[in-house]
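For practice. Supply one:
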Amino acid sequence: MDEMHILERAGLTSGELKVYLALLDLGLSSTGGIIDKSQVSSSKVYLILERLEQKGLISHIIRNNVKYFQTADPKKILEFTDNKISQLLCEKKEIEKLLPYLQKKRTLLHELSEATLFQGNRGFKTARDEFIADLQKGNEYLVFGSNSALTTAMKNSIRNFHEDNEKKGIKTRLIYNINQKQITDLLKPYRLTQIRFVDGITPSSIAISRSRILLMAYGENPVQILIHNIALASSFEQFFNSIWTIGHH
């Protein structure tokens, strides 16, 4: 049986193990005998003996002003282990109380700091999927549409995206410049999609959800930046709604 390995798992240090097992072999012994048997230096053995006594695993008597040590009943190791388990359970409860604070702190930092860059057509799809990841049936996202001409590939990609969202029950509201009226034909089939047009300059290619903002740049090598920030998303949403009220079909 590998006593060293088992007792080490019980929470004893390497030095404590050497001293304890040496004393188990020796029986009643002075520090000199323990040092010789355990091969632990005299500078360390006194501290180790003190720790083992505190753990209840050994005891001592004094004869002629000399300390002699002996192991306690080995069942004391079980008591030591039980005490350790109890301590860990108490620590676990304290950590459980602390978790809501830690999670809130992590969430706030996550919301403030996350921005991811995506490139290419595959990156475009990944960015959109992550953009709507926290949306459920009945939720909506908002879009300031592109002022640039869309390639056939991008049109197909937009169709696929809207079809997926229709199946999930996710709503979409889009605002385009009046010069982009032709977008109506592309998005007309989707019943959960609403479009309004405005005169003058509008932000271009920005999508807004409850907690994310997606900035999109089209072209031969599309680039998207996904920002996770609830406060910023809320600000963009308010701006979108103020433009929506003056838009027309």
About this structure: The chain has nine helices and nine strands. The chain has a mean pLDDT of 84.
